[in-house]
Amino acid sequence: MNCTCQEFETHYPDCTSCSDGKIITAQENGRKYILNNSSHQRVCKVRVDDCVITSQEQCKCDYLFIVCSPEQVEDENLKSSEQLYFIELKGKDLIHAVEQLTQTLEHFKPQINQAQVFARVVLSKSPPIKSIENDAKVVRLKKLLKKYQGNFQYGSRQYENDFV
User: Fold this and answer.
1) How many separate domains does the chain show?
2) Is the separation of the CB atoms in 124 and 130 below 8 Å?
3) Could you tell me the pTM of the whole model?
4) Which of 83, 91, 136, 137 sits a CA distance of 20 to 30 A from 19?
5) Which regions in the chain score pLDDT beneath 70?
6) Using CA atoms in the order 103, 127, 88, 71, what is the torsion angle rounded to 10 degrees?
């Protein structure tokens, strides 16, 4: 299975909802992630935690947003051009959220192909003042995302800085 809209719709229909609306959101407990979709591309929101990955032992993030590739790739040897946004809606433990994102990304790594990959955390409280940029877990996640031409960002309460 590849990390594509079609694959998740086929294999996880109860976990996947797709839309071409201007705004695609994920929210819980006062935290909200917003993907601004002014280009009206097809975007699939996939519930990862307790839906795609049900194991309680597996550390995982809350959602995966897939900005669907505009062209249908019929030849499986051709690479897709999806954008993947791994989303964690968290209380205040940013480092644990980084661990969840990293482990989820590692879980899906064999299926990612040529997608551009981003990781986002929305915290209910502002992160601690001390810089987390040099934390080994954050550095590891950033290195992993760099391989996919993506990045890691986080914000408090509401994150709405992503545009497609």
Assistant:
1) 1
2) no
3) 0.91
4) 91
5) 71-80, 127-130
6) -100
Distances (CA, A) of 159 to 25, 74, 118, 124, 127: 10, 35, 13, 11, 14
Domain hosting 21: range is 5-163
The CA-atom distances, in angstroms, between 46 and each of 16, 86, 135 are 4, 10, 29
Identify the bridge partners of residue 17 per DSSP, sorted by sequence position: 45
Residue with the two structure tokens 């790739």? 73
Q: The tokens of 158 are what?
A: 């509401």
Q: What digits encode the pLDDT tens for the residues 78-98?
A: 445 789 999 999 988 999 999
String of DSSP letters for the chain: --SSHHHHHHH-TTTEEEE--SEEEEEETTEEEEEE-TT---EEEEETBTTTB--SSS---SEEEEE--SS---STTSPP--EEEEEEEESS-HHHHHHHHHHHHHHHGGG-TT-EEEEEEEESSPPPSS--TT-HHHHHHHHHHHTTT--EEEEESEEEEEE-
